[in-house]
Amino acid sequence: MAFARIGISGWTYAPWRGVFYPPKLPHRLELEYAADHLDSIEINGSFYSLQRPTSYRMWAERTPEEFVFSVKGGRYITHILRLRNARGAVANFLASGVLALGPKLGPLLWQLPPTLQFDAETVDAFLGMLPRTTAEAAAFARETTLDEDRTHLAAGDQRPLRHAVEVRHPSFDVPEFAAIARAHGAAIVLADTAGRYPVIRELTADFAYVRLHGDEELYTSGYTDESLDRWAAELGGWLADGRDVYAYFDNDVKVRAPYDAMGLRDRLAEWTPRPH
Fold first, then answer.
1. So what's the pLDDT on residue 168?
2. Do residues 73 and 109 touch, judged by C-beta distance below 8 A?
3. What's one Pfam family the UniProt record gives for this protein (predicted)?
């Protein structure tokens, strides 16, 4: 059976306190509270800097058994190196504790900058380099240059490792990019960005990855009942075809993300891994 993992991008936002999070809820319990209401969360801190294995282990311990995290790849790889000569940086990212999530490790998200144009050779080489199992990731991680106390190199149980790519330059909206992603089993992120960036609906993997950044205003506006109905119908069609779906709301500015995520989760209840 396919599963719908519906969640939010990050969980530590000051404006959410006293609105989504109950008043006086300790900050250290915010992850547990969010995880009780949703099925997945994107870890965004990993985009800005390498996290520590102790953090990944703590996040795994504080969430329900069926919970899953997606992990955002580092901007050093995507925005500074721009996918080129990135093997060492990818090794450090994989070694930094990602595998410490164990069975709660979901897809790795690679968000490309809006200034990065499609180059077939670069994209093909990068996606071809990425590990497809946790065992491959552990072997790759052993190439790290990080200090031993900053690393987690154990693969744990052998599991597939999924990758999703979010693009933001219109040059990617071509059949050649979809063909490359499909050849490597990587999902092209379906991103709703209030019209700012390309919307690509090509299904190129055995799962779909959706990021909802705002219906009318990027990162700010919420989704109406009618809009959530439409998204639920589209995602429900993929689920009925046997394709897992990961969907994350990133419209956090006005505290809409968690409520919109719960609304979409309600609409896809038959596909969620935990009862409401």
1. 96
2. yes
3. DUF72
Q: Domains, the chain, ranges and CATH?
A: 4-271 (3.20.20.410)
Cβ atoms 155, 164 nearer than 8 A: no
Q: What is the pLDDT of residues 90-135, one digit of tens each?
A: 999 999 999 999 999 999 999 999 999 999 999 999 999 999 999 9
The runs of H, that is alpha helices, within 16-119 are 30-37, 45-48, 53-61, 75, 87-95
**Could you tell me which of 132, 53, 131 has the C-alpha nearest to residue 99?**
53
Query: Residue ranges of the chain with pLDDT lower than 70?
Result: 215, 275-276
pLDDT confidence of residue 276:
59
pTM, rounded to two decimals: 0.96
CB 5, CB 42: distance < 8 Å: no
pLDDT at 275: 64
- 30's enclosing H/E stretch is helix 30-37
Least Cα distance to 72 among 32, 106, 31 occurs for 106
CA-to-CA distance for 134 and 71, rounded, in angstroms?
14
For tokens 């390498």, name the residue. 50
Identify the pLDDT of residue 251.
Answer: 80
The residues, any chain, with a CB within 8 Å of residue 176's CB and separated by 6 or more, are: 118, 120
Which 8-state DSSP code applies to residue 148? G
SS3 41: strand
Residue 40: which H helix or E strand, with range?
strand 40-43
> Of 244, 251, 242, 186, which is closest to residue 217 (Cα–Cα)?
251
Provide the token pair at 191. 């991103």
How distant, in Å, are the alpha carbons of 27, 208, 270 from that of 162?
Answer: 31, 10, 23
> What is the per-residue pLDDT for 254?
76
**Where are the alpha helices (H) located in 130-174, listed in sequence order?**
134-141
